[in-house]
């Protein structure tokens, strides 16, 4: 509880050992993180919808039913188990109530370090040499 845990910017992954299995059988591929889901229509600001949206990212552990308040933005918070070997999702495209209108909801991961914004994977960051932005920025 309270993770994700870090040591020198590296994620520490813990897994509860069950039964009499061997260490090699532990997967050690999941970490938990709170995700803020932004750009939600008002109809989506509920615990049930938060759990549904969280399942699109990973395994839902907890939904914060108290809606967070940003500067001019309301958002849901969902604690999700994330597979560290897969790229992180940055947005969700959802058709609310099947009306044919796609809503793009932005995801912000809390307390995740060393995330590459280029490939979306954990474990390294995109560093620009000399502090200058390259072409396309």
Please, could you describe this protein's structure?
The protein is mainly beta. The chain has a domain at 5-13 and 27-112. It contains 1 helix and 7 strands; from the N terminus they run E-E-E-H-E-E-E-E. The strands form 2 sheets. It has a 5-stranded antiparallel beta sheet, with helices on one face. A two-stranded antiparallel sheet has the order 1-2. 16% of the residues are buried. Residues 130-137 have low confidence and may be disordered. Residues 82-125 form the Zinc knuckle CX2CX4HX4C domain.
> How confident overall, as mean pLDDT?
77
**Gap from first CA to last CA:** 38 Å
Return the structural class: mainly beta
Helicity level: under 10%
Order of helices and strands: EEEHEEEE
Shape: globular
The Cα radius of gyration reads 17 Å
Total number of β-strand segments? Answer: 7
Major sheet: arrangement of strands? 4-5-3-7-6
Number of discrete helical segments: 1
Residue share in β-strands: 35-45%
Low-pLDDT runs of 5+ residues are: 130-137
* Main sheet record: 5 strands, antiparallel
Organism: Dipteronia dyeriana
Protein name: Zinc knuckle CX2CX4HX4C domain-containing protein
InterPro entries: At4g02000-like, Zn_knuckle_CX2CX4HX4C
Pfam families: zf-CCHC_4
What's this model, at a glance?
The protein has one helix at 47-55; strands at 5-7, 10-12, 30-38, 59-69, 74-83, 91-95, 102-109.
